[in-house]
Design brief:
The chain is mainly α. It has 14 helices and no strands. Helix content is about 75%, strand content about 0%. The longest helix is centred in the middle third of the chain and has 28 residues.
């Protein structure tokens, strides 16, 4: 009985371990002001022209996006989900650009071989992260399919083309309300993904952390800086919208630009104790 009491109530208070929380198990997060996201864009723009090889990543992503929309034009739910869902899977697609940013910072030679090397170095955590984002993307695509089916885009219960989908959305109050509801629900999902993927890849590349730790750090950064990071999310969305309106041509520049900028965001947000501020 005495042994049980000693295990439950240690005689020496030094034996009591502090409770582990998000704040105790992760590095401190710096507080940033509203102007910092604009500074990241400026720094990323400078880095882009210091390492123009990153434009190849943008070209590949732009071509994949353009071909995907062209192939799915007759399936509006799939085409719409690919365009809007790009922001859900973009974080994992930027692994090569993030590796280029890391190498640019450390003075290592850049190149596409370096980006491919990052895939092998990250290993399982990267694939788990990719799997998580793909699952969320599939949830979003299924949600769009159900929404359009309820709206009955097309004829005889068969979904029509993207042209018919847009006409159904914009031709009356029912369609406009449906479009607003779809965009609001998509924004909520995108915001959740943004919060848990904000600096996930940079953390894993820089510190070889587990996926859980990297996601926790990202969430903590968003929790401590909601207003400036919501501005950052709005800037990302606006630049992607411009890219979509240009048939993804602008994505050749926008994609690597944002990836390089986010590395500076990571450095400003996460205050590792062994790294001088």
């Amino acid at each position: 009985m005495a042994g049980l009491i000693n295990r439950l109530y240690p005689g020496d208070v030094r034996e009591i371990q502090p409770r582990e929380t998000l704040d105790t198990d992760t590095p401190p997060i710096n507080r940033i002001d509203m102007r910092r996201p604009l500074r990241w864009l400026a720094q990323g723009w400078q880095d882009l022209w210091r390492t123009p090889v990153a434009l190849v990543d943008g070209l590949i992503v732009a071509l994949v996006g353009l071909v995907s929309v062209w192939l799915t034009w007759s399936r509006p739910w799939l085409s719409f989900s690919l365009v809007t869902g790009f922001l859900l899977i973009a974080p994992v697609l930027s692994v090569g650009v993030n590796e280029l940013a890391r190498r640019l910072e450390t003075g290592e030679p850049p190149g596409h071989a370096a980006g491919l090397g990052a895939l092998a170095r990250l290993g399982l955590p990267l694939w788990l992260f990719a799997g998580l984002l793909i699952v969320l993307f599939n949830v979003w695509a299924s949600y769009i399919w159900l929404w359009l089916a309820v709206l009955n885009v097309g004829s005889a219960g068969v979904l029509g083309s993207v042209d018919q989908m847009l006409l159904a959305f914009l031709s009356g109050p029912k369609g406009i309300v449906s479009l607003i509801g779809l965009l609001v629900s998509g924004a909520a999902l995108a915001l959740a993904v943004f919060a848990v993927s904000l600096v996930t890849l940079p953390v894993m590349l820089d510190r070889h952390c587990s996926l859980i730790d990297a996601i926790a750090i990202s969430f903590k950064a968003f929790r401590d800086n909601p207003r400036p990071l919501l501005l950052w999310a709005a800037l990302i969305t606006a630049l992607f919208a411009v890219s979509a309106l240009t048939a993804f041509i602008a994505l050749v520049v926008v994609f690597p630009w944002l990836g390089l900028a986010m590395w500076h965001g990571y450095r400003d947000l996460v205050a590792w104790e062994d790294r001088p501020r």
